[in-house]
Design brief:
Layout (H helix, E strand, L loop, with lengths): L7 E3 L6 E3 L4 E5 L5 E4 L7 E5 L3 H4 L1 H5 L2 H10 L5 H15 L2
Antiparallel strand pairs: 1-2, 3-4, 3-5
Length: about 100
């Protein structure tokens, strides 16, 4: 019996590898919006983030690390309004 290979992806914040199903996908849509993609199939450039405690602390968001990492991973510049909207959506999604 052949063992199925589990796809791994790297969290853009903590740089650790995880199985793809354990991560949340963040997408830059063709309309230049930043959305959280729970299905993992939305069109656009994607980046993966784990839901570990280190990646979701308010300090990490406040330090600006997230914004820089997102800009690099999604290959776009992010306005403060876009970032705040994403941050709000992210915190609702993970239940904080």
């Amino acid at each position: 019996m052949k063992v199925k290979k589990v796809p791994l992806r790297k969290c853009i914040v903590c740089q650790q590898m995880f199985p793809k199903k354990e991560l949340l996908r963040i997408v830059r849509t063709p309309q230049e919006e930043i959305v959280i993609d729970p299905t993992g199939k939305a069109a656009g450039r994607g980046a993966y983030v784990c839901t570990s405690e280190t990646c979701r602390t308010p300090d990490t968001f406040a330090s600006g690390k997230w914004k820089k990492v997102l800009e690099r991973a999604l290959n776009m510049s992010i306005s403060q309004e876009q970032y705040e909207q994403f941050r709000q959506n992210w915190q609702e999604m993970i239940g904080k």
